[in-house]
């Protein structure tokens, strides 16, 4: 059973207070030789990256659930329009995979919203209630779970050429179909992933 969205994690708040931001608001693109099957062929949006570590959401792995499925378990009393219930819910990563995260645009904040700069990350149930009534944000990305790195861990993976990186493109994040996002993110770098080998460098 999916749990109601929890308050924002203290570690995420602490990380937003720390500078420099490194690759915050960048995409990570898994290199073809990625040997962790959980992250093979993935694109990750980095919500935060600094000296304390990094946190991101995989944006191209649909969970098999839609928002209607989540709301049926967390707020069964709601009557949800199809435009909301049909939205895809993604596997954001292996950490706290039963928890929900909503990445969205807009100045409005909910009970547990973290201001990430151009976007916000909300983890409280009230955003789902507003979405069900049509008053939530238009541009949203919903995921269960997140991907996390300890201090220095992502930096080492980047040095080991495990990931490519490029500035995030919000059209890719909010508009493209899941199966198009990997190639689109690579094209954003001017790269054809099929031509890369295990010796290729990273951006």
Automatic annotation (TrEMBL):
<dbReference type="InterPro" id="IPR003774">
    <property type="entry name" value="AlgH-like"/>
</dbReference>
<dbReference type="Pfam" id="PF02622">
    <property type="entry name" value="DUF179"/>
</dbReference>
<dbReference type="GO" id="GO:0005829">
    <property type="term" value="C:cytosol"/>
</dbReference>
<protein>
    <recommendedName>
        <fullName>UPF0301 protein SAMN04487855_1528</fullName>
    </recommendedName>
</protein>
<comment type="similarity">
    <text>Belongs to the UPF0301 (AlgH) family.</text>
</comment>
